[in-house]
Design a protein that fits this description.
Oligomer: single chain
CATH architecture of the largest domain: 3-Layer(aba) Sandwich
Number of strands: 4
Number of helices: 7
Bound molecules: FE2/S2 (inorganic) cluster
Strand content: 5-15%
């Protein structure tokens, strides 16, 4: 854990007055700030909140939304809810597998792309839906998605050369 991360976590702990009953809110805040929960933060939380590490890990495994691995720079989220599924969401996941070479929950080795699947993004009328870095793209097709991902990949490569 970097010293900047560590400082931010201390700030969050201060805000909650190191209250052990606020553990879930504290974990949520850390994830909001860092994009994930660094492993090194758990010992700090354990000692500061006086909660056994085993209890912290129990909570992390119970709540699926906690991320233990640092996400990539770009987050690609495919909705697998009913409306999106019946309109071909699985063909979109296959497109991502083929272009980025990753499965749901994985990040490319260059740390540029993370692929996630969710149950419903709340805009079913636009099905099938893909969210890219928080921006919703409705009526997605494998062809459109392929073009978007290829464009993003090229832009990232250009950015790296600068
Ligand atoms: S099912 Fe995909 S947005 Fe609701």
């Amino acid at each position: 854990m970097s010293s900047t991360e560590s400082h931010r976590i201390w700030d969050i702990l201060k805000r909650y007055d190191s209250d052990p009953s606020a553990l879930i809110q504290i974990l949520n805040e850390i994830q909001k700030d860092e994009g994930y929960l660094p492993h090194a933060s758990f010992e700090l939380l354990s000692s500061e909140l006086n909660i056994p590490l085993s209890k912290i890990y129990g909570i992390l495994t119970f709540y699926e939304h906690f991320k233990l691995v640092k996400p990539g720079k770009n987050i690609i989220t495919v909705c697998m809810g009913t409306a999106c599924f019946v309109k071909g969401a699985s063909t979109l996941t296959t497109t991502i597998n083929n272009i980025l070479g990753i499965e749901s929950g994985e990040t490319t080795s260059d740390q540029l792309f993370t692929f996630e699947r969710v149950a419903c993004l709340g805009c079913c009328a636009l099905a099938p839906v893909v969210q890219i870095n928080g921006e919703v793209h409705g009526q997605m097709t494998p062809n459109k998605l392929q073009k978007l991902l290829t464009k993003m990949r090229k832009e990232e490569e250009k950015g790296e050369k600068k």
